[in-house]
Records
---
Amino acid sequence: MNVLNEMELSFESRSSNEGFARSSVAAFIAQLDPTIGELNDIRTAVSEAVTNCIVHAYRDTIGKIIVNVKITADNTVIIKVRDKGCGIEDIHKAMEPLFTTAPSEERAGLGFAVMQSFTDSLNVHSRVGKGTTVTLKKNLSRRFGNG
Amino acid sequence: MNSKIYFDGSIMTAELIGEIDHHSAKNARMEIDALIQQKKPAELRLDFSGISFMDSSGIGLIMGRYRMMLLYGGVLRVVNVPHDLERIMILSGLGALDIFERQGEVYECT
């Protein structure tokens, strides 16, 4: 994996940072000249991953969320969203569409389903009490021979 | 996100403007629900024409208002969904509820 460029954000798990996170990732990706659709897919997936950290990982507390983005030579964007929150007990259950542990927050239970559908690959690594890392990969089309 | 809410007889329309995420959905939800409880409209129209971004929080917003309207004996219509948001609407399975409407026509969402 030949990494051409990389950036990392660290911010507090406040819901007011959801827009900041997805817009910052989109701004970094802009150098690849993505299509509007690709950019929208990435913004949506990042928004879901970051919201999960805020609503679930750090429920009722404030912790740090780290978003790392790499751009590789084959025009792939690799996004890691990491927290040191509560972790996920049963990842398979958590990834089931419509399953949610936060109905009072009016969560639809679609976070992982959206991440899966809007990217090319989704990987979730979690340890209870230690935290969760979500890795999203998206291959971008080469429009003008960039990269 | 901002919302412009107005009434036409027993029809309540909420024009949503901006980006819907977990953060912004909370305020819109409280504002809309307070008015539903107060005015008990026969129909609530959520107008998405001014929405430039939405994640699954928008789905939660629709599902919650659908239940709320059901509770008060009214109906929910979701109107003017921009093309960019169609994929997430389809993924949500909300198409089964028959609540979508676009430019006066039923929005195909299955």
---
Amino acid sequence: MHLNVQDLSVARGGIAVLEGLSFTVNPGQALILRGPNGIGKTTLLRSLAGLQPALNGEINAPNESIAYAAHSDGIKHVLTVRENLEFWADVFGTNDIAPALNAFELEPLANRPAGALSAGQKRRLGLARLLVTARPIWILDEPTVSLDIHAVEMFANAIRAHLVGGGIALIATHIDLGLEADILDITSFKAKPVAMKDDAMEGFL
Amino acid sequence: MKALLIRDLRLAMRAGGGFGLGLAFFLIVTVLVPFSVGPDSALLSTIAAGILWLGALLACLLSLDRILALDWEDGTLDLLACAPLPMEGTVSIKALAHWLTTGLPLILAAPLFALLLSLPSAGYIPLILSLLLGTPALSVIGTFGAALTVGIKRGGLLLSLLVLPLYVPTLIFGSEVARRGADGLSYSTPLIMLAGITLGTIALLPFASAAVLRVNIR
């Protein structure tokens, strides 16, 4: 099981942002994506997660192997922490949420409504969701936003455990997580601006 | 899929879930109609079936933008799109949850409200029957409208305008069943038409809803 990307181009709002991107991530490896704001990290990750089609190129990953964590955590504020996690566990067909609660130190908060959590605690809940999906490839978009140093360490440990178990992680982040991982700076894959043709409107009509 | 249904029902029941919204609106409409048209019970019993259907339809319309908008805002929809559920299944479950929390309470409350509008006694069974057959179509069509307008801030107006024409056939045949029943006429033809509309929308619209939702979450 690998995550393999060949000559990939992705677009946001119909305009190409990245092109010619190729990489392979093997089991037990993590790949960290770097690049300035607006370069297309989120667009790339959403394309890999299958949420939007790629312009060009190939994404090779086993079916239903990807768990995606975005900027927003998909947490329901009126449900408790436990109910939130149990819902995702049910959806993904797993049933043990204890390791996920444990990995992100959420047990003391398990019966609290998620709306009463702080931003960092919500993020921990959002990341704990990855564990209950039991999927091998994690695609993470700025996972450490609003986490404190201790929680970042928790997160790094969860990633390490995931990699030791043969998992794959693809992480877009600006901070150093202390992981032994390859770093890919995607700045050099920025798509060349395409000159607007005069007949663009004609083509549209 | 069961987990999604249970979660949606639970969310509707909890504070701020909007469970009582449609029901309260239905109550307001039926209580206010006698005040506005006058206490003439002969007139009221003539229009009762139509008013009840209109009230149920508008009550349904009121809660449509909650079907998908909340899940869109907090990112749940993106995560569900990556989950091992077909999008068609997700939207069908959403429509079912909407029917259970909006349509079903309306049906259960309808006999009580019919009393307020002095619906003739022959009209009760056809009224319940028509609502039972017709309201699922309202939820399924509404979910399609919600999928079309998801991601548009304050899309409620657009949603209502898009969905309203699609609701017209259901309203025509639904209230025709109730009206004919109240007049003591045979109502099997409009009932069959109503059942046809509902079954057709249940069979086809989830595919359309899933397709537009996939486009909208890009």
